[in-house]
Specification:
Number of helices: 1
Bound molecules: zinc ion
CATH architecture of the largest domain: Beta Barrel
Strand order of the largest sheet: 4-5-6-8-7
Length: about 140
């Protein structure tokens, strides 16, 4: 029943990462770490792609990270045109892994590569396809 709590769309065939969905509901970010080789994954993986081990442990993520790149979208794809322009950014998470997210409450001119931001998950229970989005705040 992986990810069933977000609706009928399954993002992953693995039931082993079900906890990710449950923790997200409480706005907690979770990743996994390979017990054998130490590789970290966000979003979590049930199996290590580096050493093929399935011995993974859960780690909680603070959501803190450093801005790697960002862009402001003026010509938005269909469905997003009513909210354009909007800014999206990529952060390197403190605990490892990278995340693409919407920038919220920060003007593009205030954004600087390397600045500390915080990624916050938001659940969109009323949207059919897109269930989880991440926003970046200061
Ligand atoms: Zn591994």
């Amino acid at each position: 029943m992986a990810f069933k709590i977000f609706g009928k769309v399954n993002f992953t065939p693995y039931t082993k990462v079900e906890r990710f969905a449950e923790e997200l509901r409480d706005n907690k970010l979770m990743g996994t770490k390979c017990k054998k080789c130490g590789e970290v994954y966000f979003p979590p993986r049930a199996d290590c792609t580096k050493c093929m081990s399935d011995e993974m442990e859960w780690r909680s993520y603070s959501g803190r990270g450093k801005l790697v790149t960002f862009t402001t979208i003026h010509a938005a794809p269909t469905g997003f045109d009513d909210i354009a322009p909007y800014t999206i950014g990529v952060v390197d998470l403190e605990e490892g892994g990278r995340l693409l997210a919407w920038v919220e409450g920060i003007k593009p001119e205030e954004l600087k590569i390397g600045m500390e931001l915080r990624a916050i998950p938001q659940i969109m229970e009323d949207v059919e396809e897109l269930k989880v989005v991440y926003v970046l705040r200061k």
